[in-house]
Every structure is written in C-alpha cells, then in structure tokens.
Amino acid sequence: MGRRHKEYPEEFRRQIVELNRAGRSALSLAKEFEPTEQTIRNWIKQAQLDAGERKDGLTSTESEELRRLRRENKQLKMERDILSKAAAWFARETGTIPDGSSGS
C-alpha cells in the first residue's frame, strides 16, 4: 500500500514555484518550508510543463484527462463484465442464446 503524502494548497505550491523563479533553489526552499526538495522540484517541473516551457511530460490538464479516462475505462470494463455474466445467466436459465451472439 502506497504512502499518502500531505496535500499542499495550490496557492502555496504556486508561491514556492515563484520563489524558485525569483532565484531561490529547491534545496533552500525545502529547508525553509515543509515540502521536500524533490516535491518542490516536481512542482517546478509541472509548472514548466503547464507553461509550455518543457515538453517531456503531461500538462496538468492532460494528466487530469488521462485520470478521468482511466476511471471511465475501468467503469466501462466492470459494466461490460456484469452484462456478460448476466447474459450468460439468462441464457442458462432460459436455454437460449441471446441475439447478436455469433459463437465465432
């Protein structure tokens, strides 16, 4: 089971990124504030991706869309499995094969 990390408010993240852009290093910011240096580096990278300054990852919008599509895909697969099991049960109960089944 993965570790849960503390969620930082978006405004706090934005301020840390701005301090970095103003010349502060991620290490000095980590020493002064609570997030780790790596966490701050991740925020900086994400801000650069979102601003179009980098192309080696997904923007926040793209990441959110990917998460949404994965959730939707998981839900659709689960619904398909339920319908498949229900169709098989009805076929056994009635002794018929549902329309649209070609068997091949």
What would a concise description of this structure say?
The protein has 104 residues and is mainly α. 65% of the residues lie in helices and 0% in strands.
Structure description:
This protein is mainly alpha-helical and 104 residues long. It folds into 2 domains: 8-57; 65-97. Helix content is 65%, strand content 0%. It has 4 helices and no strands. The protein has helices at 10-21, 26-32, 37-50, 60-94. Helix 1 (10-21) packs across helix 3 (37-50) and helix 2 (26-32) packs across helix 3 (37-50). The mean pLDDT is 91.
Structural class label: mainly alpha
Termini, distance in Å?
42 Å
Task: Please provide the count of β strands.
Answer: 0
Rg result: 24 Å
Mean pLDDT, to the nearest integer, reads: 91
The domain count comes to 2
What's the overall geometry? elongated
| Poorly predicted runs of 5 or more residues | none
Sheet with the most strands? none
- Helix run count: 4
Work out the strand percent.
Answer: under 5%
Task: Walk me through the topology.
Elements: H1 10-21, H2 26-32, H3 37-50, H4 60-94
Which features characterize this protein?
about 100 residues; mainly alpha; 2 domains; 4 helices; about 65% helix; elongated
